[in-house]
Design goal:
The complex is a heterodimer of chains A (921) and B (290). Chain A is of the alpha/beta class and 921 residues long. Chain A has 25 helices and 42 strands. Helices cover 29% and strands 21% of the residues of chain A. Chain A has a 7-stranded mixed sheet, sandwiched between helices. A 6-stranded mixed sheet of chain A has the order 7-6-5-8-9-34. In chain A, α20 links the parallel β36 and β37. In chain A, α3 runs antiparallel to α17 and α6 packs parallel to α7. The longest helix of chain A has 24 residues. In chain B, 42% of the residues are buried. In chain B, a hairpin with a 6-residue loop joins β8 and β9. Chain B has 2 domains: 227 residues, Rossmann fold, CATH 3.40.50; 45 residues, no CATH class. Helices cover 34% and strands 20% of the residues of chain B. Chain B contains 8 helices and 10 strands. In chain B, α1 packs across α4. Chain B is an alpha/beta fold. Classes of the chains: A alpha/beta (921), B alpha/beta (290). At the A-B interface, β3 and α2 of A face β8, β9 and α7 of B. β3 of chain A pairs parallel with β8 of chain B, so a sheet runs across the interface. Chain B: It holds the Pfam family DUF58.
């Protein structure tokens, strides 16, 4: 290395090449550009015309200068010029490069990578052996020394991890290295446990230098639910300046699309800033995560499991005597038990069932009305939990007496029994230990819980399987039966303290919690996790992005309850059979401290001027000079057609490169589209992406448009293809939708748009185009495709077009609707059932609405299709019969459009006489 | 032979829409050869022209007695003055006429030959006699002569420039010279003078390539003549443009001047413009403005 001022050269001896420049000057000067030779008949007129200046036989000075510049740029480039060269480190021995690679590095990861590349490049230039490690990703085989070039190649694939390094493994790996080496440690500036151990291991190998990145890292602390929202802490460390940012609560909206459900604007001032986000309970139940806006780090995300959710509990009591004391009320203990953790709803049965609650509690309700029972059964089958409590009413009723009631887990014996009363021999019974199969397994039973009255179950064969809690004498206390996805649970005692002391004990709460998964009743997550196995479903990467866990191994609940994020338990969402748990990078009570370095460690600031190799710039300059030289030579010899044209050429080539494509404003596009589509009546077809189908659709609608214009007063404009995802649909009366095999699934927004279109009077005309094979109720590929598309559409009940449907007489009198195929049924919205044939009237008075969907298979577009010259494009049938069929297809097309445009106008009875006359009756 | 056939076909195609050309002759009396070529005035000929009242001095045998018997006056029967004109063509076929800068490859000599033959056909239809001036055949009419002319027009010369040979011109004939006139001017001048002395009238048609007119050359250029014998080198061809144009315009002026002095007419035609324009002009020049 040889340096002049801020410039250094790697191969200074190459600069000797500059000595040949004077020689080059002489040579170039002597050789002018080659002449252009031309045959010309008018030479006689030219003879004797001399050039005004005679020097042009030599190369012009500016061209000479350009060429000399070119050559010297080349020579300098290969001499390896470096701006701000780093003084070469003295030691050339092995080097350990360590980067923390935690979530704190994630926001500045590209910078870290660039710096690493620089360090490795320098090591490469010094031919040093390097052992490179990302602390969070210690290779299983230990650290190895390799040439720096090899490490550089793999650098791009490194990503930060969403957890702190495993200090023990790292220290062990470092100690296992076989030679002494100095260390360069790129630290993220955050202390983690065991860091001193790593440092000690490194110092045992040689000197340690640390590069700390001056950065400000934000992290989101754990989330706590409070009265009207959530509160959480924002941790800031590193450079502590005031920062403005937003904390977002993300979750799905009712359509399943992820949205911002709430946000809070935060100005951080200290290392910990408390934040409060106001969220309504409905929104709170949907939140899946909290995150700091525009912060790419796993620590800026707080995943939320089920523990923020508040179940909705409906309480319904059988006793309607309002005069009783609260404390004697059936619902008093339930209300108290649930209100802490759930949203309790009380009200009329028909109102509360509509709220679709998580849990319905029936306290001593015996008989339900038929409709209520059906509703309740439906709700239970869909996953509801029905909790029933006994009481005098149930004991006195005949419910589930002879046959098993669907909303009762077991059959009941008449009456019930009392223990320990004045008229009985026995003592109040205590509870038996819960069995392993019981959901209450593991709960401690207080001694003072006694049962003095209960309802007895009939000893049926499946009784024992349904008992989940029993008294000391083996009689059932709680029985359970699953109904569909839900369950029905019966407490054989009352919900108040009349029959037992159970509602007075803490056990009651725990039991309810176990049954309803109302998690926050106790905060002992540990207790809940005991014995469970958690499988990861979605995991966080170091940048804070969620990804599907795939086949990651499950974690046992005991491990999970105390786990920090690590490579074995990565941050993410875990699922137990009952609940979802979140494991976050930053957990409750975490505090971050800046890393403290002992005196023995050299700390380098990272803002040293980085050295820049000038070689590429010089090479580019030389290349540019070469291009200019070429142009100049062309200009000198007159071979260039004209500078103007060259400039235009250069402009056309370069301008697109310089100017980024400027997106046309979407609003303008959509406005123009709307204007075109709405200025005249326009038929539309769905652009399927299949060119042949789209062309046929366009030509078909063109054919119908022409037939309409020729025969009716409807004169549509040229048909338009619509993209369902982007184009507005509201201006089209009819959208023709040919089903193709390649039809992709539609997004939720598209479905919303289509449903809105259909509800506001639009009609979608589906054509499966397989009328030749779809008859006889066979399921065709197109048919099943249509079903998959229409599954999420708001399609009303359908029926084949009845004989007296308006479609059969909106313009022509038709009974068949042929397209390219004949015979396949055409389906429209089912007519209202109450309209019946009235004697003497040929037509029913059908509903006023135009069917929002019309479904057929006859491939109408092909029959309608005309080329631009009006010629039919596709063959239909054979000979005259085929032409007749095409004519009928056009008639159907006209009927269809008029039906869509006029609705039930033709259904009006005022037309009946004329129609009867036409029909010859 | 094939080429001459092709040229003839093209010429006939071009000549087809033209009306018959009646070449004007100034000096009827001196013309010896008579033919079916009416001059629209009374004179020697075989066709009836008009009756006119006899005047004093008319010989008695000139009176048409049959016409005079129909009335009291005496009438003389006059015949139409008839004459066939001889037209000579000189079409320069030297090397410099082989130049072209056009993409369709229209060579100047091609254009000249086309014009000469088209005009020949038109003239022959009008009964004129036509000949090429450097051939021995005297002016004649008929398809055989046309074939001969076509053959004669397809013989390129090696010389850089050439000049017409006017020694065998019939007196008081007409002549058309087609050339680029870029060579030495003296032979042309001499030929014109000799022709004018023989009472020959006619037209000079200068045929130029657009490149010769515009001189679109730039940069260092070596210009070589068409047969490669003369060359001229310049470092900046674009500098020469104005001076070259001045010289070309001077040459045109000289030609115009020469033509005016000899009672001839002059036109400059460019090969990138249609051939019909100069053909019409030449037709009118030979016919003379009435």
């Amino acid at each position: 290395m040889w340096t002049i001022g801020p410039l250094g050269f790697a191969n200074p001896w190459l600069l000797c090449g500059l000595l040949v420049l004077p020689l080059l000057w002489v040579l170039l000067r002597a050789v002018p550009p080659a002449p252009n030779s031309v045959r010309f008949s008018g030479v006689a007129l030219l003879l004797g015309l001399n050039d005004k200046d005679s020097q042009a036989a030599r190369t012009p000075w500016w061209l000479l200068l350009l060429r000399l510049g070119l050559v010297s740029a080349l020579i300098m480039a290969f001499a390896g010029p470096i701006l701000n060269p780093k003084p070469q480190t003295q030691d050339t021995g092995p080097l350990i490069v360590l980067v923390d690679g935690t979530w704190a590095d994630a926001p500045v990861w590209p910078t870290q990578m660039a710096r690493l590349d620089e360090i490795l490049e320098q090591a490469e230039r010094g031919d040093r052996l390097v052992a490179f490690a990302v602390s969070t990703d210690v290779p299983a085989g230990g650290l190895t020394f390799a040439p720096a070039r090899e490490w550089r190649a793999g650098l791009a694939g490194r990503v930060p991890a969403p957890f702190a390094p495993d200090a023990d493994a790292l220290a062990a790996a470092i100690e296992a290295l076989d030679r002494k080496a100095s260390t360069l440690w790129l630290s993220d500036g955050i202390a983690y446990t065991g860091r001193e151990k790593v440092l000690a291991a490194l110092q045992s190998k040689g000197a340690v230098q640390v590069i700390e990145t001056p950065q400000s890292v934000l992290a989101l602390g754990s989330v706590e639910r409070d009265e009207n929202g959530v509160s959480l802490d924002v941790h800031q460390f590193g450079v502590t300046d005031d920062r403005d940012f937003k904390v977002l609560a993300m979750g799905p909206d009712p359509a399943g699309v992820e949205r911002v459900l709430g946000q809070a604007h935060v100005v951080s001032q200290e290392s910990i800033t408390p934040v409060h986000l106001a969220l309504r309970p409905e929104l709170m139940n949907r939140v899946t995560r909290f995150q700091i806006e525009n912060m790419r780090s796993a620590a800026a995300v707080q995943l939320v499991g089920d523990n923020l959710k508040r179940p909705e509990v409906v309480l319904i009591s059988g006793d309607n005597d309002n005069g009783t004391l609260d404390i004697l009320s059936q619902l008093h203990y339930l209300r108290t038990a649930f209100s802490a953790s759930s949203d309790v709803i009380e009200g009329a049965f028909s109102d509360v069932i509509a709220a679709n609650p998580d849990v319905i509690v029936l306290a001593d309700v015996a008989q339900l009305s038929g409709g209520e029972e059906t509703d309740l059964l439906d709700w239970t089958r869909k996953g509801g939990v029905l909790l029933r409590f006994s009481g005098p009413k149930l004991a006195a009723s005949d419910v589930s007496r002879d046959a098993l009631d669907p909303l009762m887990p077991v059959r009941l014996r008449a009456g019930g029994r009392s223990l320990g009363g004045a008229m009985s021999w026995g003592e109040p019974k205590q509870l038996q230990e819960f069995s392993e199969k019981s959901p209450f397994y593991g709960l401690d039973i207080p001694k003072d819980v006694t049962v003095s009255s209960q309802i007895m179950a009939q000893p049926d064969p499946d009784l024992s399987a349904r008992v989940i809690a029993s008294l000391a004498d083996g009689t059932p206390l709680v029985t359970r039966k699953s109904v569909g996805q839900g369950q029905v649970v019966l407490f054989h005692v009352t919900a108040n303290a009349q029959w037992s002391t159970l509602p007075l004990s803490g056990l009651f709460l725990s039991m309810l919690q176990r049954l309803t998964q109302a998690s926050n009743i106790t905060s002992s997550e540990t207790e809940e996790l005991t014995g469970q196995v958690l499988s990861p479903i979605r995991l966080l990467d170091g940048f804070g992005n969620l990804y599907d866990a795939g086949l990651k191994p499950s974690v046992s609940g005991e491990v999970f309850s105390t786990a920090r994020t690590s490579s074995r338990t990565p941050a993410g969402l875990y699922q137990s059979p009952l609940r979802t748990f979140a494991l976050n990078v930053i957990q409750k009570g975490d505090i971050f401290l800046p890393a403290q370095w002992p005196q023995s460690v050299t700390i380098l600031t990272s803002e040293v001027t980085s050295e820049t190799s000038l070689k590429p710039f010089l090479l580019i300059a030389a290349l540019f000079a070469l291009a200019v030289d070429m142009l100049a030579t062309l200009a000198l010899t007159g071979r260039m057609i004209g500078m103007g044209r060259a400039a235009i050429f250069a402009g056309t080539v370069c301008l697109p490169l310089i100017m980024a494509p400027h997106p046309i404003h979407a609003q303008q596009v959509s406005d123009a589209f709307l204007q075109t589509a709405s200025s005249e009546l326009t038929l539309a077809y769905v652009v399927t992406g299949d060119d042949a189908v789209d062309t046929t659709s366009r030509q078909g609608l063109l054919g119908v448009s022409q037939a309409l214009a020729a025969r009716t007063s409807v004169e549509p404009a040229a048909p338009i293809g619509v993209d369902l995802a982007t184009d507005p649909l509201g201006v089209f009366p009819l959208i023709y939708w040919p089903i193709t095999q390649g039809q992709t699934a539609l997004s939720a927004q598209t479905y919303d748009k289509l449903n809105a279109y259909m509800r506001t009077g639009g009609t979608i005309f589906f054509d499966t185009r397989d009328g030749d094979i779809s008859g006889f109720g066979r399921v065709t590929p197109m048919g099943s495709k249509l079903r998959s598309i229409a599954a999420q559409l708001d399609v009303p009940p359908l029926e084949p077009v009845p004989q007296d449907h308006v479609l059969t007489r909106s313009f022509y009198l038709l009974q068949e609707f042929p397209g390219r195929y004949v015979g396949a049924d055409l389906w429209v919205q089912k007519s209202a059932t109450e309209t019946e044939f009235i004697e003497g009237m040929p037509f029913r008075s059908l509903n006023d609405n135009v069917s929002p969907v019309i479904i057929g298979a006859n491939d109408w577009a092909s029959a309608w299709a005309v080329a631009d010259d009006g010629r039919a494009v596709r063959p239909v049938g054979a000979g005259y019969a085929g032409e007749r069929q095409r004519e009928m297809a056009y008639r159907f097309g006209i009927n269809l459009i008029l039906y869509v445009l006029t609705g039930s106008y033709k259904s009006d009875q005022i037309h009946v006489p004329a129609l009867l006359e036409r029909l010859g009756e | 032979m094939n080429k001459s056939n092709d040229l003839r076909t093209r010429s006939e195609a071009l000549a087809a829409p033209m009306p018959a050309l009646l070449a004007e002759a100034d000096h009827l009396a001196q013309t010896l050869m008579m033919g079916g070529h009416g001059r629209r005035r009374a004179g020697n000929g075989s066709e009836f022209w008009q009756y006119r009242p006899a005047q004093a001095g008319d010989p008695a045998r000139a009176i048409d007695w049959r016409r005079s018997a129909q009335s009291d006056a005496v009438f003389v029967r006059e015949k139409e003055w008839q004459a066939a004109q001889s037209v000579y063509f000189w079409c320069d076929q030297s090397a410099s006429m082989q130049f072209t800068s056009l993409k369709n490859g229209t060579v100047k000599s091609d254009r000249g030959a086309l014009l000469a033959l088209s005009l020949s056909i038109v003239l022959m239809q009008g009964g004129e006699r036509v000949a090429l001036c450097h051939h021995d055949t005297p002016p004649r009419n008929g398809p055989q002569q046309l074939r001969r002319i076509a053959e004669g027009l397809c013989l390129p010369l090696d010389a850089e420039h050439s000049a017409p040979d006017v020694s065998h011109f019939v007196p008081h004939a007409q002549a058309v010279f087609l050339s680029d006139f870029l060579g030495p001017i003296e032979p042309i001048e001499a030929a014109l003078e000799a022709a004018a002395n023989a009472g020959v009238r006619g037209a000079l048609c200068q045929i130029l390539d657009p490149a010769e007119e515009a001189f679109p050359y730039k940069g260092r250029t070596v210009f070589t003549s068409m047969n490669g014998r003369v060359s001229h080198e310049t470092m900046r061809a674009d500098d020469l443009q104005t001076r070259y144009k001045t010289r070309l315009n001077a040459r045109k002026a000289t030609l115009q001047n020469l033509a005016a002095q000899a009672g001839w007419q002059f036109i400059c035609h460019h090969t990138d413009t249609p051939a019909r324009v100069p053909l019409l002009w030449l037709y009118q020049a030979l016919e003379g403005a009435r």
